[in-house]
Amino acid sequence: MAGLIPRAFIDELLARTDIVEVIGARVPLRKAGREWKANCPFHGEKTPSFTVSQQKQFYHCFGCGAHGTALTFLMEHDRLSFPEAVEDLAARAGLEVPREGGAAAPRDRQQDDLFALMADVDQHFRDALRDSERAKEYLVGRGLVGETAARYHIGYAPAGWDVLLRKFGATEAGREALLAVGLIIERSADQQKSSGPGWYDRFRDRIMFPIRDARGRVAGFGGRVIGEGEPKYLNSPETALFHKGRELYGLYEARQQLRTIERLLVVEGYMDVVRLAQEGVHYAVATLGTATTPEHLNRLFRVSSDVVFCFDGDRAGRQAAWRALETCLPQAKEGRQLKFLFLPEGHDPDTLVAAEGRLAFEARLDGALPLSEYLVGHLAAQVDLATVDGRARLGELARPLVARLPAGIYRELLIERLAREVRMPAPRLATLLGLDAAAPGGAGRAQRVGTGPPRPGEGAPRHAGARLAGRSSLVSQAIARVLQQPAAAGAVGSAAALRGSGDRGLEVLGELVEMARHEPHLTPAQLVERWRDRPEHARLEELAAWPLPELEDAAVGRELAGAAAKLLAEAGPARRLDELIVRAETIGLSDEEKRELRELQARPRHDS
Q1: Do 228 and 110 lie in a common domain?
Q2: CATH number of domain containing 181
Q3: How far apart, in whole angstroms, are the C-alpha atoms of residue 414 and residue 285?
Q4: I need a surface site. Which of 172, 247, 435, 468 has the fewest CB within 10 A?
Q5: Could you tell me if residue 264 is inside a domain?
Q6: Are both 223 and 290 inside the same structural domain?
Q7: What is the pLDDT of residues 443-477, one digit of tens each?
Q8: pLDDT value for 468
Q9: 116: β partners
Q10: pTM for the complete prediction?
Q11: Which residues, 6 or more positions from 532, have their beta carbon under 8 angstroms from its beta carbon?
């Protein structure tokens, strides 16, 4: 199919990915022997049953049955499509996602051409900064050093009306490309009456901040006027490359600087991000002068489970903070920390970190208000808690806000916090507010509490999809062994016979053995991902998570060889048994066939 991601790239991507880092950025993990454990992010629980195996590159929850690779986790937890999950991991690994040739190629080439233009313009602005004493003096006056400006590719757009247009828009194709990325503006009808038809540069006499996407490509620009002028900040418009409600300034640079991002600080301005980084606070991002959107939050939580919003302490800053809180509510759940920091009046992060230094600034971050405390405190300030009427009013103010929280432990704890202010038992308050109906649940998955994988020797749970386990739990155990220790599959010399057995479970086992024999270096995660587009994939994910006893590869090889021989010996009679059962249910059996059926049914088998 045109535009598919090559299998070899998926293998390489998973080889470069550490599932512990991916999940640990979203869920607080703790070491437990050879594995990592946490409370499951897919269902509410108080005792950790969610495990992550660094060796297998796999996760599994013994409570709800959630399991899979790093790609599966991103798809389930962040609600991404498979291509989006691949893009996310690729950006983390610094890789470009290739596509197999086909119908998608022309569109991709057009987009690549636009990104190439943006890179050239980025260099043009940087060259212009080098040649402008006025622009450099402005940055020095703001406390920036050359190394910081270079790291963030800060540049300068000269004051002329058509500097960029003359350099990159000499042809019609060049002008169309500049229009497509929002770097020039077509004159209005009134302007054309006085100046004639044409175009002019969008950014003039401004310090330029390139806004880079997850891969480091320049998708848009922000420009800060030098001296007086309006608007003070000007951003690229919405284009095929740039979506203001999705992009975060400084996120790419933060990922490049820090291997693990423990928390993210959301500020309002480009200069705040840059100056904070210069002082050693490398985890600040900005929302490009717009309110925080759900898309922004999705991107933030893909990187870190701890997010702090920073606002000025004046009235406008507090209004912006409350809007951010309202946007955050549907995303607030256990495993995530959302906090709010209000700065002293007259300061923004840029000036404050310059005045008091990194350590003092980070001490403020450590003391930021959790979302729950900010919400309760903000509402409580509007009522008189000394009176029954005031406490009742607090409950009513909180009702629509708490209702926007996802059902789960976090919402229950917030209701308990409100109940203390209202002076009422939490269950009673929840009932009166109509917030006790929805039970805690998973994120987008049907719960299967208590149906985790069996211990070795127990019957295997049937998956609603493909019937790959056949008639025998021995098949499932053999498949689980191959998935978990691919290097041991070389001891099985009967892969072709298994594939030609006529039993679906044995056919899958044979195909897995062949894959593992040809590529013994494959990890369990890589082997499972080979089956993602096939109906057996979900069941294979389950089997890859089975808790099997640890054995050396040689011992597992002997176990697999013996299992394959036994299964093949049973395959012929089992196939004949199926044929007789079908005949009995349709056209009937002769006396001889009935006797044969009774004998086959009496044979010992490894039933699940």
Answers
A1: yes
A2: 3.90.980.10
A3: 28
A4: 172
A5: yes
A6: no
A7: 333 322 222 333 333 333 333 233 333 354 888 88
A8: 38
A9: none
A10: 0.62
A11: 71, 82
User: How high is the mean pLDDT of the chain?
Assistant: 84
Beta strand pairing call for 35-38 and 30-32 = antiparallel
Same domain, 109 and 231: yes
> Which residues span the domain enclosing 24?
7-93
Q: How far apart are CA 236 and CA 182, in angstroms?
A: 6
In a domain, 431, yes or no: no
Collect all residues with Cβ–Cβ distance below 8 Å to 289 and sequence separation of at least 6.
222, 233, 235, 268, 269
Query: What pLDDT sits at residue 459?
Result: 35
Residues 6+ apart with CB under 8 A from 209: 152, 154, 221, 222, 223, 224, 249, 270, 274
The pLDDT of residue 419 is 93
Q: Does 482 share its domain with 513?
A: yes
Residue 24 neighbours by CB under 8 Å, 6+ apart: 36, 52, 260
End-to-end CA distance of the chain: 38
If you average pLDDT over residues 353-361, what whole number do you get?
A: 96
Enter the DSSP assignment of 152: T
CB 516 within 8 A of CB 522: yes
The C-alpha atoms of residue 347 and residue 2 are separated, in whole angstroms, by 53
User: Per the omega criterion (within 30 degrees of 0), is the bond before 231 cis?
Assistant: yes
Q: What is the CATH number of the domain that holds 355?
A: 3.40.1360.10
CATH of the domain at 488: 1.10.860.10
Region 54-62: what's the mean pLDDT?
90
608 pLDDT above the threshold of 60: no
Q: What CATH code is carried by the domain that includes residue 35?
A: 3.90.580.10
> Is 262 a member of any domain?
yes
Together in a domain, 72 and 109: no
Buried b (16+ CB within 10 A) or exposed e, 379-415: bbeebeeeeeeebebbbebbeebbeebbbbebbbebb
User: In whole angstroms, what is the distance from residue 24 CA to residue 547 CA?
Assistant: 22
Q: Which of 185, 208, 235 is the last residue of a domain?
A: 235
DSSP string, 36-92: EEE--TTS--SS--EEEETTTTEEEETTT--EE-HHHHHHHHS---HHHHHHHHHHH
CA dihedral 30, 35, 39, 42 (to 10 degrees): 140
Q: Which of 366-375, 429-438, 507-516, 558-567 has the lowest mean pLDDT?
A: 429-438
Same domain flag for 132 and 168: yes
Q: Are 97 and 5 a contacting pair, CB within 8 Å? A: yes
* Nearest Cα residue to 418 out of 393, 385, 394, 390: 394
Residues 256 and 222 in one domain: no
Q: Are residues 119 and 222 in the same domain?
A: yes
What values do phi and psi take at 284, rounded to 5?
Answer: -95, 145
Task: Over range 481-504, report the average pLDDT.
Answer: 83
- Residue 25: the pLDDT is 82
Task: Give the DSSP letter string of 480-535.
Answer: HHHHH-GGGGGG---HHHHHTSS-HHHHHHHHHHHHHHH-TT--HHHHHHTTTTST
**Residue carrying the six token digits 């789960």:** 408
pLDDT at 442: 35
Total domains in the fold of the chain: 4
CB atoms within 10 A of CB 579: 13
Is 102 within 8 Å of 204 (Cβ atoms)? no
On whether residue 522 sits in a domain, the answer given is yes
Domain ends where: 43, 67, 93?
Answer: 93
Q: Which of 211, 229, 99, 207 is nearest to 156 (CA)?
A: 207
pLDDT in tens, 144-165: 999 999 999 999 999 989 999 9
Contact present, 350 and 365 (Cβ < 8 Å): no
